[in-house]
Write the structure tokens for this entry.
Amino acid sequence: DAKTTQPTSMDCAEGRAANLPCNHSTISGNEYVYWYRQIHSQGPQYIIHGLKNNETNEMASLIITEDRKSSTLILPHATLRDTAVYYCIVRVVGNTDKLIFGTGTRLQVFP
Amino acid sequence: GAVVSQHPSWVICKSGTSVKIECRSLDFQATTMFWYRQFPKQSLMLMATSNEGSKATYEQGVEKDKFLINHASLTLSTLTVTSAHPEDSSFYICSGREGSSYEQYFGPGTRLTVT
């Protein structure tokens, strides 16, 4: 799988939008962009995924650039409970694929 | 989303003993299960992948004779840490996926401490 690059840490004020960037410049045409997050001492939680188009669900929005070399996860109204490590992963969906986690971005939401 | 449970949530064992961790998919059939290990302040490291009824495939550097993985049913996988040592102390997380589903669901993790 292609590798991703994320900032080590970010801060965000409660109630503001949190924009988490991810670079995946070597992504292949059949690789999806996935986002997971891990709250301290818990298992990772799926957030969202996309291939080419922007995606939105009840948790977040995913903006993928036209060349697919980078993406941004947007938490529209961050809360203290969104404090976590956010992982951006690229993955080929299939029977033999596997999620390989990078170092992620530690998001701290402050009051 | 679907639910994956792990048991126990934490365990303390003495050096040299073996410990088994169970991972269950509660509302889906996990044709593929994954086991990860996470040391403090580090990311998740994939240890092995197993398909139901088949032998697990281990990642490079993971000792298959030390970390025994069984995936005998579509809802249960077990990880046995044999002859545990303090350096095996870690957070072990399992994950399951049904077929080639887009989503992979994670358990809450098991914290192992070897004294």
User: Anything to note?
Assistant: The two ends of chain A are 37 Å apart (CA to CA). Chain A has a mean pLDDT of 93.
